[in-house]
TrEMBL record:
Residues 301-315 have a biased composition (Acidic residues). GO terms for molecular function: 3'-5'-RNA exonuclease activity; endonuclease activity; RNA binding. It comes from Geranomyces variabilis. The gene is DIS3. This is Ribosomal RNA-processing protein 44. Its cofactor is Mg(2+).
C-alpha cells in the first residue's frame, strides 16, 4: 500500500518548492515473538517473556519515548530483557538525544538482552495518520497505543504486551482502549529480586520539594523567547564554566556586542540552575550592577542538622557579598535567563553521611539524601534511596533528573555502586569515568580486524611493494623505561659529500588499521591512549600497539620514514617521505642512550649515530630558540610502585636528559616537515595543530609579581617572552624555574584543526615558534597522527584510493573537535591519577617541607612543594573557609596581591615551610585530599607545629575507633 505525502517548503534562496514523499505500508513486517504461529521465527526473536507481581502472566513491555529517554538507566539493568522498542519511539528518541539513542541501540544490538525494533510506522495495521486537531506528541502517543493493541490482538494476549508510560493521560487513554499500562514506578516496584531498581527510577518531576517557595530561582525563559532574544541581541549564549575554586562563580567566553570576551556570573541566583558545561542563554547586567570577582576558595559544605534551604542560601549569599566587597574592580557580569542545552552526565561521588537518617533503615522506606559529585564544580544532588546507610562510604554513580526552581539543589537518582571509598581499583575506575575515558575491553568485532596470524605475523615480500628497505641501517629507538608501544626510531649516517643523512622512522599503523572498519572507528572514538600512574588505556589492541606496530629491536617492522639530508650545521638540504621497512638495532631507554653519549670510548655504529644526532639536535634547538620558541616547565612527578600491590613507595621529579631533548628535536622536525607536505597537497583538508597566542591580560598578575623581583616580562611576541625568561634570574634557582611554570599556566591550549577552516595566518604555533605544525610521530597512541599518515600516504602517491571523508573539510573539522576533547580529557585523567597516587603516598605520613607561594587569594594561598612537585592550598585561618566565627589574622591587600599579618607578608614566590598530610575520605569528604598547613613563618592562629598535628590526628583516630561521632575541628 502506497501513501503520498505532499508539502511545500522554502529554500535558503527564498524559492518555494513542493516536496512529495512516498510512504509504503507493508503486510510482511513480523512481530518477532518466538511463540507466534502467524509470523516466521527470527534469529533475534523475543523469547522467555517476563512476569512480575503486577503482571503475573508472561508479557513483553513496550516503553514509550519518555520512559526510554528518562529511564534509560533502569532499562539498561540486566533485569530487563525481551523488550519491544517501536520505530516511533526510536525516531523520537534520536531527535531528542543522540547520546541516549546510542545507548538504546547498544541494548538492541546485544543478543543477550533480546530487545527488538518493530517498524510500526511501516506496518499497514499499526500506522496512524495525524488528525487535524492533534499535536505531533499526541499522534505519537496514539501510534504507540495502537501498536501495543495490535500486539495483543495479534498474539491473542499470549504473551501479553504491556505499555510502560509515565504520562498519566496516556495511561488513562490506554485503559479506555483496554490496553494494560503502568508507570515505571508501578512496574519496577512489582519486580522480584531487584530492590535496587526502585532507586534507579528518574524523578522527572520532583514531588519531594515543598510547594511553598521559601526560596525560588528565577523562571527560565522558553526556547522561543531565548531564540527571539538572541536574534535581537538582548541575550547571548555560551558554555558555562564553573570556577574550580568557587562553586558560586561561573564564567562564559562568548561574543558580546561583536566582541569576544569573558563574562562572569556571580552568585547562586544569577547562575540560575546552570551546571558546569551547560550551553546557557545570558543577559548582560547594567554596568551599575557589575560585580567583583570573589577571589576566594569557596567549597560547598555539608548540611549539618539538615539546615533549611532558605537559611543556607541566605548564609552563602551574605558571605559572597561580604567577601565581594573587598575586591578592587568590577568585571562584566551577566545572569542566566535560560538553558539551551544541558550537559548532564552520570556523576561519580559519595553520599553525604550527615544527610542520612538512621531511623529510616532497611530497604522498605526511601529517604532523601545528598550526593557529593567528585567534580567540585557540580552542585550537591538530592536523591531518594532505600539503601542510604549501605551507600555511605562507597563510590556510587548518580544521574541528574531535573532542577525545579524552588529547590537549591538538583534532584537525581542512583545508578549503580562502584566500590569502597579509598580502594585503589575503585578510585581508578572513578578517574576514568569522571573524564569520559572509554576503557571497556575491545569488542570481538574490533579484534576481528587484527591479522589472522596474530603474534606470528611477520613482514612478507608482498608487504614491501612501494617501500624502501632500510633494514641495513643502524636504526635505534630511545624511550622511557618500560615503554612497550614504541612509535619512533632514528638513524644518522655520514654521506660521501660530507653531509649527514638523518631518518625519523614512525610505526606504520595505517597498514593495519584501515579506514571505516570497526577497529578504526573504535580508535577514533578513543582518540588517544590514556596514561595513568598504574595502568595504560590503549587506543589500539595490544597486539598492534605493543607488538606488530611497535618498533622493537631485532625484528622487521613496517614504518613511515622522513629522511633529510643535512649539513653539519643542521641546515636541511632536502627531504623525502617514504613507506619503508626497518630493523631496529637497539631499543634504548633515555638513561641507556645517555650513557652512550657520555662514554667517549664507545664508537659502535649505533652510538656514533646517537652522538651525531645529539650534535644536530643542539643546533636545531638553538635555531628554534632564535626563532622565539619557548622553554617552559611543569612540576611533573614519577611514582615508584610496589610490583605486587602497585602501592606508591616513592615519588620523584622527572629529570630531563640530553637524550630527551635529542628525541624531542627530531620529532618536532618531522612534525613540521610533514605538516608542510600534507598542507601543500591538501590546502583545504589537512589536519594540523596550532597554539594560539595568549592575550596579554593572561600575564598581568605574573608581570606584576616578578616586577617586585626586579624582573620584566615582555609578552609582545614569543621571542620577546623567551628572552625575558632567559634573563629572569634570581638568587634562588628554583624561583627561575617557578617563573617558567607559572608562565606555562598563562598559555592557551594547543588544538587540532582543519586547514580549510582557519586563515593561514592563524596556523602559528606560539610555543614552538613555527608557522605550521601537525602530529605525525605517535600513531600508536594518537588518532590524529593516523589521519596525518593517511594524508601523507596519498600526498606521496603511495595510496591511490582513499575515502572522501579523508579530504572532507567538514568531516575533518568535526573529527578535530572530538580529538581535542579526548586529548583534554586524557590529560585531566592523567593529572587526577597523579593526585590519587599522591594521596596514597602521603597516607599515614606527616611531613614538613619547604614550599613556594604560587597564588594569593583573600582567604589563603597556594603553594608548590619542590621536592615532590605537588601543590596545595593553605587557608588563612586554621578553621579554613568553613568557619567564619574566628576571623583570620591575615588582611588581604588587593592592590599588592598579598596577605599581611603583622610583619609577615605572604606574596607570590615567597618561601615558607608547610606540613603535609592526607585527610581520609568519609563523612562529608568527597575524596581523600592533601591538607597543607603553614609552619613557618609563624603566624599565631594560623601556623602549626608538626607535633601538635600528630597528637591531634592520633586523638581523632582513637575517638573514631571508640565509635564516637566526632566533628573534625582543628585542635591546634
Amino acid at each position: 500500500m502506497l501513501k503520498n505525502k505532499a508539502f511545500v517548503r522554502k529554500t535558503k534562496r527564498g524559492t518555494v518548492i513542493k516536496v512529495v514523499k512516498e510512504h509504503y505500508l507493508r503486510d510482511d513486517i513480523y512481530c518477532e515473538v518466538a511463540t507466534c504461529t502467524k509470523c516466521p521465527s527470527s534469529l533475534n526473536a523475543v523469547t522467555t517473556p517476563s512476569t512480575t507481581k503486577l503482571v503475573p502472566s508472561p508479557h513483553h513491555i513496550v516503553p514509550d519515548t519518555n520512559v526510554l529517554y528518562h529511564q534509560i538507566d533502569v532499562l539498561e539493568h540486566a533485569a530487563f530483557t525481551d523488550v519491544i522498542i517501536l520505530q516511533t519511539v526510536l525516531q523520537e528518541l534520536k531527535h531528542r538525544s543522540n547520546a541516549v539513542y546510542a545507548r538504546a541501540r547498544t541494548m538492541i544490538s546485544d543478543p543477550k538482552r533480546r530487545f527488538i525494533v518493530f517498524c510500526n510506522e511501516h506496518h499497514r495495521d499499526t500506522y496512524v495518520e495525524r488528525r487535524a486537531d492533534e499535536s505531533p506528541n499526541d499522534r505519537n502517543d496514539r501510534a504507540i497505543r495502537t501498536a501495543v493493541a495490535w500486539y495483543n490482538m495479534h498474539l491473542d494476549g499470549k504473551p501479553q504486551a504491556v505499555l510502560i508510560t509515565d504520562d498519566a493521560d496516556n495511561r488513562r487513554k490506554a485503559e479506555v482502549d483496554k490496553i494494560p499500562a503502568y508507570s515505571t514506578q508501578q512496574y519496577v516496584a512489582s519486580m522480584q529480586g531487584h530492590p535496587d531498581l526502585v532507586d534507579m527510577i528518574a524523578a522527572v518531576e520532583d514531588s519531594n520539594i515543598a510547594a511553598e517557595e521559601r526560596f525560588a530561582y528565577p523562571e527560565h525563559l522558553s526556547n522561543s523567547q531565548i531564540a527571539a532574544g538572541i536574534r535581537s541581541g538582548a541575550f547571548f549564549q555560551g558554555k558555562l564554566s564553573i570556577s574550580q575554586n568557587n562553586y558560586l562563580e561561573g564564567s562564559v567566553f562568548a561574543q558580546v556586542d561583536k566582541e569576544e570576551r569573558t563574562v562572569m556570573i556571580i552568585g547562586r541566583k544569577d547562575l540560575n540552575r546552570g551546571i558546569h558545561g551547560d550551553i546557557v542563554a545570558l543577559q548582560m547586567l547594567p554596568e551599575s550592577q557589575w560585580k567583583r570577582p570573589v577571589g576566594v576558595i569557596l567549597e560547598e559544605e555539608q548540611i549539618e542538622g539538615q539546615k533549611d534551604e532558605d537559611e543556607e542560601e541566605k548564609a552563602e549569599e551574605s558571605k559572597m557579598d561580604v567577601e565581594n566587597g573587598a575586591a578592587n574592580e568590577t568585571v562584566p557580569t551577566a545572569k542566566i535567563v535560560g538553558i539551551i542545552k544541558r550537559n548532564w552526565r552520570p556523576f561519580c561521588g559519595t553520599i553525604e553521611k550527615a544527610s542520612v537518617s538512621s531511623a529510616a533503615s532497611g530497604l522498605t522506606s526511601q529517604q532523601s539524601v545528598f550526593f557529593w559529585a567528585m567534580d567540585k564544580k557540580i552542585p550537591k544532588i538530592r536523591i531518594r534511596t532505600r539503601q542510604a546507610e549501605n551507600l555511605v562510604g562507597r563510590r556510587i554513580i548518580v544521574a541528574i533528573d531535573g532542577w525545579v526552581r524552588n529547590s537549591l539543589f538538583p534532584s537525581g537518582h542512583f545508578v549503580r555502586t562502584l566500590g569502597e571509598v579509598g580502594d585503589r581499583a575503585t578510585e581508578t575506575e572513578v578517574v576514568l569515568l569522571e573524564h569520559d575515558v572509554p576503557f571497556a575491553p575491545f569488542s570481538s568485532s574490533v579484534l576481528s580486524f587484527l591479522p589472522a596470524e596474530g603474534e606470528d605475523w611477520i613482514v612478507q615480500p608482498e608487504h614491501l611493494a612501494g617501500r624502501i628497505d632500510f633494514r641495513h641501517l643502524d636504526v635505534c629507538s630511545i624511550d622511557p623505561p618500560g615503554c612497550t608501544d614504541i612509535d619512533d626510531a632514528l638513524h644518522c649516517r655520514q654521506l660521501p659529500n660530507g653531509n649527514l643523512e638523518v631518518g625519523v622512522h614512525i610505526a606504520d599503523v595505517s597498514h593495519f588499521v584501515k579506514p571505516e572498519n570497526a577497529m578504526d572507528m573504535e580508535a577514533r572514538r578513543r582518540g588517544t591512549t590514556v596514561y595513568l600512574v598504574n595502568k595504560r588505556i590503549d587506543m589500539l589492541p595490544s597486539l598492534l600497539g605493543t607488538n606488530l606496530c611497535s618498533l622493537r629491536s631485532n625484528v622487521d617492522r613496517l614504518a613511515f620514514s622522513c629522511i633529510w639530508e643535512m649539513k653539519p650545521d643542521a641546515t636541511v638540504v632536502n627531504v623525502k617521505y617514504t613507506k619503508s621497512v626497518i630493523r631496529s638495532k637497539a631499543s634504548l631507554t633515555y638513561d641507556e642512550a645517555q650513557m652512550r653519549l657520555d662514554d667517549s670510548k664507545l664508537n659502535d655504529p649505533v652510538t656514533q649515530g646517537i652522538k651525531a644526532l645529539n650534535q644536530l639536535a643542539k643546533k636545531l634547538r638553538a635555531n628554534r630558540m632564535e626563532a622565539g620558541a619557548l622553554t617552559l616547565a611543569s612540576p611533573e612527578v614519577r611514582f615508584k610502585l610496589e610490583e605486587d600491590q602497585q602501592d606508591p613507595v616513592d615519588v620523584e621529579l622527572k629529570e630531563l636528559k640530553d637524550t630527551n631533548a635529542l628525541v624531542e628535536e627530531f620529532m618536532l622536525l618531522a612534525n613540521i616537515w610533514v605538516a608542510k607536505k600534507v598542507y601543500e597537497a591538501f590546502p583545504e583538508s589537512s589536519m594540523l595543530r596550532r597554539h594560539p597566542k595568549p592575550p596579554a591580560a593572561n600575564f598581568e598578575s605574573l608581570q606584576k609579581a616578578v616586577g617586585e623581583l626586579g624582573i620584566t616580562l615582555d609578552v609582545t611576541t614569543s621571542r620577546a617572552l623567551a628572552d625575558s625568561l632567559n634573563n629572569a634570574t634570581t638568587t634562588d634557582p628554583y624561583i627561575n624555574k617557578l617563573i617558567r611554570i607559572l608562565t606555562t599556566r598563562c598559555m592557551m591550549q594547543a588544538v587540532y584543526f582543519c586547514s580549510g577552516t582557519v586563515p593561514e595566518s592563524d596556523f602559528w604555533h606560539y610555543g614552538l615558534a613555527t608557522n605550521i605544525y601537525t602530529h605525525f610521530t605517535s600513531p600508536i597512541r594518537r588518532y590524529s597522527d593516523l589521519v596525518v599518515h593517511r594524508l601523507l600516504s596519498v600526498a606521496i602517491g603511495y595510496e591511490k584510493a582513499y575515502t572522501s571523508d579523508l579530504v572532507s573539510k567538514e568531516k575533518l573539522s568535526e573529527l578535530s573537535d572530538v580529538l581535542n576533547y579526548r586529548h583534554r580529557m586524557a590529560q585531566q585523567a592523567s593529572r587526577s591519577s597523579v593526585e590519587l597516587f599522591t594521596n596514597m603516598f602521603f597516607k599515614e605520613k606527616l611531613l614538613q617541607e619547604d614550599a613556594y607561594v604560587i597564588r594569593v587569594l583573600k582567604n589563603g594561598f597556594s603553594v608548590l612543594i619542590p621536592r615532590y612537585g605537588i601543590e596545595g592550598y593553605v587557608y588563612a585561618s586554621l578553621n579554613d573557609s568553613k568557619d567564619s566565627s574566628e576571623p583570620s589574622p591575615f588582611v588581604y591587600d588587593g592592590e599588592k596581591n598579598r596577605l599581611i599579618a603583622g610583619t609577615v607578608e605572604i606574596k607570590l614566590f615567597a618561601k615558607c615551610s608547610v606540613c603535609v598530610f592526607v585527610e581520609e575520605a568519609g563523612g562529608a569528604a568527597r575524596r581523600s585530599k592533601l591538607v597543607v598547613r603553614l609552619c613557618e613563618p609563624w603566624v599565631p592562629g594560623v601556623s602549626v607545629r608538626l607535633d601538635d598535628i600528630r597528637v591531634a590526628r592520633e586523638q581523632d583516630q582513637l575517638e573514631e575507633k571508640s565509635g564516637k561521632v566526632v566533628k573534625k575541628a582543628k585542635r591546634v
